[in-house]
Amino acid sequence: MGQYSGFHGDFLRGNAATMVLAILSEGPAHGYAISHEIQRRSEDLIHFKPSSLYPLLHGLESDALVTSDWETSATSRPRRIYVITPLGREALVARLEEYRRYDEAMAKITWGVQHGGS
Questions:
Q1: Per-residue pLDDT tens digits for 55-81
Q2: I want to staple 46 with a disulfide (CB 3.0 to 4.6 A). Which of 35, 42, 58, 105 is the partner?
Q3: In percent, how much of the chain has pLDDT > 90?
Q4: DSSP 3-state assignment of 96?
């Protein structure tokens, strides 16, 4: 899912929805803005291709975690704006807690390797 620099694709694929929900938890956004913000916050380590991001957004919408609507403007072409739902906020909180527990477990498992022990 997407083009990733500096991380194994499978690792990020499992966390892509969490990243998108985190961005949308701060306000509505269109796909390009979501992708750009993830890239900016990751300091260019994570890049989403449209061919990866839009199916992910459609899946989140199918799961009722986000909604979308068309934004039209006289000065630009119509674009789809995504908004996190209350269910999406609940899912984000649960995913972040799961990630926190995973991070703690990994730190315990790899502590010896990280500190020169066995």
A1: 999 999 999 999 999 988 888 889 999
A2: 42
A3: 64
A4: helix
What pLDDT, on the 0 to 100 scale, is given for residue 94?
A: 97
- The span from the CA of 3 to the CA of 9, in Å, is 8
Give the pair of three-digit tokens for residue 82: 């995504």
| Phi-psi group of 4: left, alpha or beta (phi > 0 → left; psi -120 to 50 → alpha; rest → beta) | beta
**In whole angstroms, what is the distance from residue 46 CA to residue 90 CA?**
24
Q: Which residues of 34-49 are buried (b: 16+ CB within 10 A; e: fewer)?
A: bbebbeeebeeebbbe
Q: What is the DSSP string of 33-94?
A: HHHHHHHHHTTTSEE--HHHHHHHHHHHHHTTSEEEEEE--SSS--EEEEEE-HHHHHHHHH
Environment class of 61 (CB within 10 Å of its CB; exposed 0-12, middle 13-18, buried 19+):
middle
